[in-house]
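Quiz preparation item.
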């Protein structure tokens, strides 16, 4: 039978060093809360349930932890902070439900990979009672050291308590521990607090387990997987690592990035094959880009669906609800919002198209805006297939421009325009020959009269 695993995720920290008005685990990486990264990794590794230990902003933390996974989440509140061992023991009733394995994760460790968790549970399946994830640190200063003998883990030694010989070890404690579900509660209850801080340390579980004749091992994971977040500076470091991973995966899937380091992705960004992304592009949540589309430099996309072969930017902003069909174009200094743009339609430059439907092959001239808000409600502008909107036109919604219709430049359209009709809505031009020179003479005379004499 398949083994069952419970993930206990510690998410009750106060975020003191973050200096934030919200829980640390609600801060985001790749536009997804830290806690959601952790629970999604656990779900991907096949855990059957998540036991969530919460404190500050409990309801919001639970909601974030549950998002995007189909694994049940049970939460318990930790009202006192007495160390990691105490925090895990808060989930005593959930742990006691009879899982084969219990893995302890941290809500501020969003870079943990499912592969690392699977490696730990595989080691448990092969006979180890306690498995600790460790990493080789470039600079081990401050980390607990993993002390091994004959292939087994005999202790986790905190940096300040380590001997000179132990300080030379670069194999460090990553904090993630997997242990037997059958032994879990008993081991946790045996953890004491006889230390300088009077706290219950989860790391003591190794020596407790060995004293009972249980086998403990440490396995190595990438240092990046173990990164935790305590400050805004560390949050930025984690974001950089996550972005590098996401860009690398995108490029391996067939996406071209001219300057990868200047492209920022979200957790759910979908990029098709042969997509080209120029420098300085930002993808917010909810963006899908079809095959062969080109995203030119300095563009900002959020909540947008970009069809195959479409062209965006440079300097374009696609806001939520934008849907671009195949080979549509939104050019430089254009903004769209809740707009459905048909195949081959062009919004070339300096335009705002919001709450609108743009038909296939329509052409929107420079400076065109849809006046979609009347101060109380939003209204729809419907632009038909093959319509031509002249430059500097204002389309006052609700209004429909028919298929193949033509709107003269500089028009303010307030009424529907039928199919194949020409609409011109502007004041008639008057030309007065010779007036320009007389006007200049008049202006010069006025200046001479008002000019102050020098003192």
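Solution:
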């Amino acid at each position: 039978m398949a083994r069952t695993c419970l993930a206990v995720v510690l998410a009750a920290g106060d975020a003191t060093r973050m200096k934030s008005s919200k829980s640390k685990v609600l801060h985001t990486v790749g536009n997804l809360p830290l806690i959601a990264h952790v629970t999604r990794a656990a779900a991907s590794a096949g855990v059957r349930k998540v036991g969530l230990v919460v404190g500050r902003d409990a309801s919001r933390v639970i909601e974030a932890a549950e998002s995007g996974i189909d694994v049940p989440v049970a939460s318990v509140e930790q009202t006192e902070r007495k160390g990691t061992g105490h925090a895990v023991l808060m989930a005593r009733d959930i742990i006691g439900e009879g899982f084969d394995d219990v893995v302890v994760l941290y809500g501020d460790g969003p870079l943990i990979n499912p592969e690392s968790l699977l490696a730990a549970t595989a080691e448990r399946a092969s006979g180890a009672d306690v498995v600790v994830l460790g990493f080789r640190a470039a600079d081990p200063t401050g980390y607990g050291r993993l002390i091994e003998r004959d292939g087994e883990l005999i202790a986790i030694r905190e940096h300040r308590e380590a001997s000179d010989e132990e300080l030379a070890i670069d194999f460090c404690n990553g904090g993630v521990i997997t242990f037997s579900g059958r032994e879990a509660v008993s081991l946790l209850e045996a953890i004491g607090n006889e230390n300088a801080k009077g706290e219950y340390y989860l790391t003591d579980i190794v020596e407790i387990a060995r004293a009972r004749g249980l086998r403990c091992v440490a396995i190595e994971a990438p240092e990046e997987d173990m990164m935790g977040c305590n400050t805004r500076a560390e949050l930025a470091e984690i974001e950089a690592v996550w972005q590098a991973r996401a860009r690398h995966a995108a490029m391996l899937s067939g996406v071209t990035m001219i300057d990868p380091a200047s492209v920022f992705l979200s957790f759910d960004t979908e990029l098709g094959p042969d997509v080209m992304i120029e420098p300085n592009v930002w993808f917010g949540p909810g963006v899908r880009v079809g095959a062969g589309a080109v995203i030119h430099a300095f563009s900002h996309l959020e909540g947008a669906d970009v069809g195959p072969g479409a062209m965006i930017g440079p300097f374009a902003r696609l806001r939520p609800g934008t849907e671009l069909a195949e080979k549509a174009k939104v050019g430089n200094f254009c903004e769209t919002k809740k707009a459905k743009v048909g195949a081959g339609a062009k919004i070339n430059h300096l335009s705002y198209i919001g709450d609108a439907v743009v038909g296939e092959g329509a052409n929107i001239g420079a400076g065109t805006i849809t006046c979609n808000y009347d101060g109380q409600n939003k209204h729809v502008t419907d632009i038909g297939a093959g319509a031509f909107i002249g430059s500097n036109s204002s389309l006052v919604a609700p209004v429909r421009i028919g298929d193949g219709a033509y709107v003269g430049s500089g028009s303010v359209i307030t009424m529907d325009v039928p199919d194949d009709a020409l609409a011109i809505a502007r004041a008639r031009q008057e030309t007065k020959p010779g007036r320009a020179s007389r006007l200049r003479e008049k202006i010069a005379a006025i200046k001479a009269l008002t000019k102050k004499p020098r003192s």
